[in-house]
Design a protein that fits this description.
By secondary structure, the chain is an alpha+beta fold. The protein folds into 3 domains: about 10-90; about 120-230, Butyryl-CoA Dehydrogenase, subunit A, domain 2; about 245-390, Butyryl-CoA Dehydrogenase, subunit A, domain 3. It is about 45% helix and about 10% strand. The protein is built from 12 helices and 8 strands. It has a 4-stranded mixed beta sheet with strand order 1-4-5-8. A 4-stranded antiparallel beta sheet has the order 2-3-7-6, with no helix packed on it. Strand 2 (about 140-145) and strand 3 (about 150-155) form a beta hairpin. Helix 4 packs antiparallel against helix 6 (about 230-245). The radius of gyration is 22 Å and the shape is globular. Mean pLDDT is about 90; it is low at about 1-5 and about 340-350. The structure holds flavin-adenine dinucleotide.
Amino acid sequence: MSDLPLDFGDPADLDRLRRDFRAWLAGHPLPARGADEPVPVHLHRWHRMLHCGGWVGLDVPLEYGGRGLTALHQVAVSDELGARGAPGVPRIGYLAHALLEFGSEEQRRRLLPRMLAGDDVWCQGFSEPGAGSDLAGLSTRADRGEYGHYTVNGQKLWTSYAQYSDLCLLLARTDVTGPAHASISAFVLPLDRPGVTVRPLRAAGGDDEFCALFLDDVRLTESDRVGAEGDGWALAMTTVAYERNALDTGHLSKYGLLVERLRRRARESRGSLPDGLLSDIGRCVVDYHVLVAHSRRRTAERLAGQAAGPESSVDKLLMTRAEQRLYETALKVFPEELYEDSEEGGESEEGGEIFKDYLYSRAASVYGGTSQIQRNIIAKRLLRLTADDRG
Ligand SMILES: Cc1cc2nc3c(=O)[nH]c(=O)nc-3n(C[C@H](O)[C@H](O)[C@H](O)COP(=O)(O)OP(=O)(O)OC[C@H]3O[C@@H](n4cnc5c(N)ncnc54)[C@H](O)[C@@H]3O)c2cc1C
């Protein structure tokens, strides 16, 4: 049972949805991962199952392949999944929102139903070797030719799971004379276009999440462009704003499960845990509840029609702090989780998952914009501080 209190009115409707989804989940558990099946392929099977059940894109309008419900319904589904430790739908929400806000009617009708169904798998081609935090400084170019075609040249980096993807939401510079932010445009790049090379990169931990993308004289048309020329920056900021929210990413209820496990351990410890560790657990509980309260507020804003904006940097910082402290503390409290194949760890409740989540939590202060960049955004755009305000 989930413990994420939503309570935004219309509970009958939401309760019914939760009940229906729980019943569906009971008959459709997450399928076992094949021996050599890569994680993204496994998750893609799960995505398709969820879509067949009608549980993907709840807040996307009916005409674009969704269910035409509200953000609250989508949150309830993510919450139910997280509360069972089941993965959510990968990397859909924030890309769908970017297309909803910036795509043409033709693009929304063509691309969104296939995205939601998992017929097209998407990746995000924003970062480059010299442009991560300084995204506006990206140097991939899309030069417009005589017949309205674009020729794209450049390189993207850290593109998650591009080797398993069909389409990439790409940022490229369409004007080399104008101001940096205003001369970036967004495109839908089919990864099988001639001139595209996807090269997987092996991370230190052995994962193959990242790819480098090489673009050599790739031809794109006007109908591949999302929004007007120069809209790329606004589209990118919309995308990352949705990427920075613990509700959209479905992480909140997953944290809730572990927080509850820590609380149980603290209650049962009867003095066997050192005071320092008990304080750490206390901090995890507080972080979690702050994040829940904050996420409820963000949901209320969205239900009131407010678009995601720079406030999402606060979401991201809170989420990063909660996640990193939680997994750090959990590893101290459950040290057996360090050993995936240990007698206990192999068959334990989380089966070594905490250690994997701990390792991945280190990336939380980098992906979707680093913590330093979030603080810069908060200082400049929310607090309106200037260089003169430096203490
Ligand atoms: C798990 C993961 C998945 C990712 N997936 C994708 C993806 O699918 N698509 C994609 O496009 N990108 C992806 N990224 C890349 C991510 O967006 C970038 O790593 C991130 O924006 C930081 O850029 P960078 O790595 O170039 O670091 P840099 O920008 O080189 O930053 C290095 C350090 O300098 C600091 N710094 C830089 N500028 C400033 C400043 N102005 N003020 C203060 N400090 C500063 C940064 O905070 C950081 O600590 C992913 C990253 C991770 C970790």
